[in-house]
Amino acid sequence: MKNILFTASECTPFIKTGGLADVIGSLPQALVKENLANVRVILPKYGEIPDQWHEQMEEIASFPVRIGWRNQGAKLFKLEHDAITFYFIENHHYFERHGIYGYYDDGERFVFYSKAVIESLPYLDFVPDILHAHDWQAGLAVAFANILQPVKNMKTIFTIHNIKYQGMLHYEAFDDLFNIPREHFAGFEWNGMLNAMKSGIFHADKITTVSPTYAEEIKEPFYGEGLESLLRDRQGDLSGIINGINTDDYNPMKDPYIHANYQHSRVKKKENKKKLQEMIGLPVKPDVPMYIAISRFVEQKGFHLVEHILHDFLQQDVQVVILGTGEYEFESSFSWFAQNFPEKMATLLKFDEGLARQLYAAADFFLMPSKFEPCGLSQLISLQYKTVPIVRETGGLKDTVHPFNEFTGEGNGFSFQNYNAHELLEQMEYSLKIYHSDKLWQTLLKNVNKSKFSWTDSAVQYAELYKDLAASHTEGE
Ligand code: GLC
């Protein structure tokens, strides 16, 4: 079995801002439990990590990290959790802050983190065959590993979870912070800036992303965010492996947050709907179809389309519930609709895990019309909770939700192709028609019940990649 060191900037249950944390918090377990690889994970030790975890960490080393002409101290901590060894890199100046991103010196913070990952390798009591780095915050670790070769024959994999966020620094930071010979500058530079995402893609032995469709899409300008030509250069080493979810945790049979636990029962699901309607002040009408959206309100998630169709759609006998926070434009327009259609719409401006699960359990339909979606986890959770997803055909949404065809009886959701509000509305209206036609609705629900999104298959695909890559050096040398 191969030794794999994951490096990333967030991981459940310690710290989370998005889906990346869910993946780093569940893929290693899947690999280890299926005996597919020995995985350990290294993370920044943020002040924001809850105290209960800090208290369990054990300090194992302390060393300086060279940042230009300065030395920054790093302390390395270790913690075992759920069969996985986690390492944490501490530096108060960089990581003892409110929140985890959004600072003027984010670039420098992750230069430090990436260097500290490399410097920590001798202290790990674990010799990685592969450094598996995730998203821009760990992109420089891939570059430093390939240039500095800190462990003989260690290979690198870089996984793109979202190419929109690239981690840019002024080009002068190369001389100020990197301590890497000038000849390597071109491997870090993109359009006049230093770019951590580009550095990862350029230097990694293999590149993956989180769905097969997104792996194709990012080679095109609409999705590639300026890096499409580089991805086309490296397409022989690029592949897409779909994410899974932790199906023990997201399990409507056992979920402690929901009112009535269930497996396939629509009767129980309606009890959850009634309870939710009471709780959030909507008319208690369990037979009225309920459409939900749960997300950060950002352009990526397709909320412009939702905004455009709400007025028309709310003319129907339906209920719509939106849960999340984000850009002011969306918060205010969704609040406006809730105020003006109090019998039909509720807007809950917060992030609340328990409430989110109550919504998944209560609803009939889940809206996710993303403009782009590398994988998307919410549509998988929605399928787990037997709530029918309505999605745009992009990235992982296209790979996991298949449009219902009333003639062949295939499909586990509804989908549309173009980023166009009319196409969304058309699918929502079609979903209503299916909901009201008993036989077709039953067929659709059967397909939803059969959808499976545990990590098992994808973990096997990662293990294959690890095996091929780790074997590759012995032949050439
Ligand atoms: C990012 C992507 C999302 C993906 C997640 C985990 O948050 O936007 O689509 O599911 O990473 O890979």
TrEMBL record:
EC number: 2.4.1.21
Pathway: Glycan biosynthesis; glycogen biosynthesis
Domain Starch synthase catalytic span(s) in chain numbering: 3-232
Reactions this protein catalyses: [(1->4)-alpha-D-glucosyl](n) + ADP-alpha-D-glucose = [(1->4)-alpha-D-glucosyl](n+1) + ADP + H(+)
Keyword Glycosyltransferase: yes
Entry's Gene Ontology BP terms: glycogen biosynthetic process
Domain named Glycosyl transferase family: residues: 285-434
A GO molecular function held by the record: alpha-1,4-glucan glucosyltransferase (ADP-glucose donor) activity
Its job: Synthesizes alpha-1,4-glucan chains using ADP-glucose.
Family stated for the protein in its record: Belongs to the glycosyltransferase 1 family. Bacterial/plant glycogen synthase subfamily.
Name of the molecule in the record: Glycogen synthase
